[in-house]
Design brief:
4-stranded parallel beta sheet; RapZ_C; ATP-binding; 2 domains; RNase adapter RapZ; Rossmann fold; 9 helices; 293 residues; alpha/beta; RapZ-like; P-loop_NTPase
Length: 293
């Protein structure tokens, strides 16, 4: 039997994760009273020879004060031999606030007040679960399909899991450095395709721009040194328990050089294992140039 407790911050994707687990063949229940958690797990365990061999249970702050009893419940489950795994879904505070505003939902702990106050209270209440979590997924930069890929790795292919999610992000300095960037690399030292009339309206996603940017020795040397440094840092970040790494590559407008280098770095990192990976071009559509006629 495989029994998974799915928990985490409200708005971080717990309901979505449960639906994905259900599609993977897990029997899923959400917001079950804490007092019934052990009984539910025991029923699944007793019926291991039956049809249910995988189950997941969603738990969050909607359990109210009973959430405080969960620690004792988990300890007793371990004592009597019920094995479980904890999947914790997390996201940055600013991302959670944005998601709440977009959906116009009220935070369960905000009591009609500010969302960020509710988020702070929720983090405090869930801290003990995050510390015990077997898997922590930060969904701040993850698309739904990328979350599915990460869950497949853990619960379908049983790959060794490290909680680090790497986001390679291109941006334009004229629009500001990304506030969540951990590592920032400035590629404005490279020749700018903007000054080539035939390349100006294109982006780093176009082959012509890529060929131009990658055609310089300095570009290839930079990429080689950057890849070498990132490959050195990744295992050290994993060992330190870091779960989110944003690598930002910037040029002037975020349309040509940074996009090309971000695409190349992403392609190189895809060959590695032990971490999740996503790619984002923040400013690629902010400047819509036309050819001079």
């Amino acid at each position: 039997m495989r029994f998974v407790i799915v928990t985490g911050m409200s708005g971080a994707g717990k309901s979505t994760a449960l639906k994905m687990l259900e599609d993977m063949g897990y029997f899923c229940v959400d917001n079950l009273p804490i007092s019934l958690a052990e009984k539910f797990a025991q029923l699944i365990l007793d019926g291991v020879e039956g049809r249910i061999r995988k189950a997941a249970m969603g738990i969050d702050v909607r359990s109210g004060q009973a959430l405080e009893d969960l620690q004792n419940v988990l300890e007793h489950m371990s004592i009597i031999g019920i094995e479980y795994e904890i999947l914790f879904l997390d996201a940055r505070d600013d991302v959670l606030v944005k998601r709440y505003k977009e959906t116009r939902r009220a935070h369960p702990l905000a009591n009609g007040g500010r969302i960020d106050v509710g988020i702070k209270k929720e983090r405090e209440r869930l801290e003990f679960l995050k510390k015990q979590a077997d898997y922590i997924l930060d969904t701040s930069q993850l698309l739904t399909r990328e979350l599915k890929i990460e869950l497949d790795k853990i619960f379908v292919y049983n790959q060794e899991f490290n909680s680090l999610i790497i986001t390679v992000l291109s941006f334009g300095f004229k629009y500001g450095i990304p506030s969540d960037a951990d590592l920032v690399f400035d590629v404005r030292f490279l020749p700018n395709p903007y000054y080539m009339d035939d390349l100006r309206p294109k982006t780093g996603l176009d082959q012509e721009v890529r060929d131009y940017v990658m055609g310089f020795d300095n570009t290839r040397i930079f990429l080689e040194k950057l890849q070498d440094m990132i490959n050195f840092l990744i295992p050290n970040y994993i060992n330190e328990g870091k779960n989110q790494l944003v690598i930002a590559v910037g040029c002037t407008g975020g349309k040509h050089r940074s996009v090309t280098l971000a695409e190349e770095l992403y392609r190189c990192l895809k060959k590695g294992e032990g971490y999740g990976l996503s790619l984002e071009h923040r400013d690629i559509e902010k400047d819509m140039y036309r050819k001079k006629g």
